[in-house]
Amino acid sequence: MRLFGLTQRTLAPWLFLAPGVFIFLIYVILPIFQSINISFYAWDGLGEKTYIGLQNYVELADDDAFYTSLKNNVIWLVLYLLAIPAGLFIALFLNQNVWGIRLYKSLFFFPFVISQVVVGLVFSWFYDPSNGLMNILLNGLGFDSIPVLADERFVTYGIIVAGLWPQTAYCMILYLTGLNAVNPEQIEAGRLDNAKGWKMLWYVVLPQLKPATFISIVVTVIGALRSFDLVSIMTKGGPWGSSRVLGYYMYEKAFSEYGFRMGYGAAIAVVLFLIMIVYISYFLYKMYRDEKGY
Amino acid sequence: MFPAPIERRALPLQWIYKVALPIALVLWLLPLIAVFLTSIRSAGDITAGNYWGWPTSINLIANYTSIFENTPLGKYLFNSFRVAIPTVIGAVALSCMTGFALAVYQFRSNLLIFFMFIAGNFVPFQILMVPVRDLTLQLGVYNTATGLAMFHIAFQTGFCTLFMRNFIRALPRELIEAARVEGVSEIRIFWFVVLPLMKPAIAALSVLIFTFIWNDYFWATVLTQGVDSQPITAGLYSLNGQWIAAWHLVSAGSIVAAIPPVAMFFLMQKHFIAGLTLGAVK
Question: Which residues in chain B have Cβ-Cβ distances shorter than 8 Å to A268?
Answer without folding.
Answer: 126
